[in-house]
Amino acid sequence: MTKGDKVLIVVVVILTLLSLGFIKRQAFSNENKFVSIQVNGKEIKKVIFDKKIIGKKIPIQSKYGFNLIEIDDEKVRVIEADCPDKIDVKQGYISKIGETIICLPNRMVVEIKGVKKGDAIDIMNH
User: Fold this and answer.
1) 60 and 8 in one domain?
2) What does the alpha-carbon distance between residue 31 and residue 118 come to, in Å, rounded to a whole number?
3) 25 shares its domain with 37
4) Which residues of 53-75 are buried (b: 16+ CB within 10 A; e: fewer)?
5) Measuring CA to CA, which residue among 105, 122, 99, 97 is closest to residue 43?
6) Same domain, 21 and 40
7) Is residue 1 part of a domain?
8) Which of 62, 76, 78, 94 could form a disulfide with 99 if both were Cys (CB 3.0 to 4.6 A apart)?
9) Per-residue pLDDT of the chain (126 residues; tens, 9 = 90+)
């Protein structure tokens, strides 16, 4: 292995580490995050985090069951459900992009999603 090969390997490793750091920072940025509430695979509500909605409770009634969702400061949880096991209630708060709360009996999913800069999104505050 020549000196040039060693330099090339070091440069490639440094570029790889810098790229991974940039990707991680972009993918897990908490800017512009919102809550997506889905029932039976269809999104029924989008709620953007805002100081005005801290403490708001959102009832989700469907033919599959009932869930009560509470929005807090940059986090969300299910506080009531009529499913037998109540795993979604026991899970507690989620706050990071990509985290989900799932209630299988009621076919409900609460997910925190993020918006990339420059993307248009139609969000309604509840």
Assistant:
1) no
2) 12
3) no
4) beeeebebeeebbebbbbbeeeb
5) 122
6) no
7) yes
8) 94
9) 899 888 999 999 999 988 887 776 665 555 678 999 999 999 999 998 888 889 999 999 999 999 999 999 889 999 999 999 999 999 999 999 889 999 999 999 999 998 765 555 444 444
CA distance linking residue 40 with residue 33, whole number of Å: 22
Same domain (yes/no): 6, 47: no
- Domain membership flag for residue 122: no
74 with 95, same domain: the answer is: yes
Domain hosting 20: range is 1-30
Give this prediction's pTM.
Answer: 0.68
**How many domains does the chain contain in total?**
2
Cα 40 from Cα 100, distance rounded (Å): 15
